[in-house]
Amino acid sequence: MTISTLPLTIPPLENGDTLTRFEFEQRYAAMPEIKKAELIERCVYMTPAVHAKAHGKPHAHIMGWLVAYEAVTTGVEVLNNSTVGLDADNEVQPDALLRIEENGQSTISNDDYVEGAPELIVEIAASSASYDLHQKFNVYRRNQVQEYLVWRVYDQELDWFCLQEGKYIALQPDQSGILTSTIFPGLCLAKSALLSGDLGTVLGVLQEGVGNREQGTGNRE
After folding, report:
1. Which residues pair with residue 80 across a beta bridge?
2. Cα angle at 39 between 38 and 45, to 5 degrees?
3. 147: exposed, middle or buried (C-beta count within 10 Å: 0-12, 13-18, 19+)?
4. How far apart are CA 184 and CA 182, in angstroms?
5. Contact present, 84 and 78 (Cβ < 8 Å)
6. What is the rounded distance in angstroms from the CA atom of residue 119 to the CA atom of residue 182?
7. What are residue 84's DSSP bridge partners?
8. Are 46 and 13 in contact (CB under 8 A)?
9. 10 Å Cβ neighbour count for 117?
10. Quick count: other Cβ atoms within 10 Å of Cβ 216?
11. Rounded distance between C-alpha atoms, residue 71 and residue 220, angstroms
12. Which of 45, 90, 116, 166 measures 20 to 30 Å from 105, CA to CA?
């Protein structure tokens, strides 16, 4: 039997497939050329090519903000575009996440994937029509992701949700337009500066927030 006539034992992963998490992982692993695919409510979502200014640049700025926080905060971990197993029907690959390493909600499995809900997830979305604000929103809420930040690039808007009594409530900025995490002490975000691409101000506000924070879980002594 030649290679061209070998039977296909594992079907290809395709956008819109309805699969169990086991089937999804099996097909995903068999197609290393696929860079990002997610299982949301047992439906497969495959991401098309990523735009530079509409996704790559915002993603880079978010990572810079989170990595700067990790650099001065013990006990937390920033991960970029990592696979997260949430439950039997959902395996996602968020743009960024911030988790508490010890006694947090998530763990790192033996095969080096995140299992369970990170405390903070960030997604770079096209607009309010994106599945990040619909299907993923409900999945993250149900799995107890404590904070969920969505940057709607085309809408030039940013939503930061906090889980309260099983519901996501939008965090409100203070009088200076600063958003502050309820989970991570000192994690402050200058919303307008981020949306305008002023990373210097974003990092300056973060530095000020870290400097003013009280001692708590994950803080540097």
Report:
1. 96
2. 55
3. buried
4. 6
5. no
6. 10
7. 92, 114
8. yes
9. 25
10. 10
11. 10
12. 45
pLDDT in tens, 23-59: 999 999 999 998 899 999 999 999 878 889 989 999 9
Count the residues in the chain. 221
Place of tokens 């696979």: 83
Side-chain-facing half-sphere of 201: CA atoms under 13 Å: 12
pTM higher than the cut 0.85: yes
Q: Contact at 8 Å (CB) between 150 and 131?
A: no
Distance, CA of 21 to CA of 34 (rounded, Å)? 17
The DSSP bridge pattern shows strands 114-115 and 84-87 to be parallel
- Identity of residue 91: E
Residues 120 and 69 sit within 8 Å (Cβ to Cβ)? no
Structure-block tokens of residue 77: 């971990």
Give the tens place of pLDDT for each residue, 164-207. 999 999 999 999 999 999 999 999 999 999 999 999 999 999 99
pLDDT digit string, tens, across residues 118-148:
999 999 998 777 888 889 999 999 999 999 9
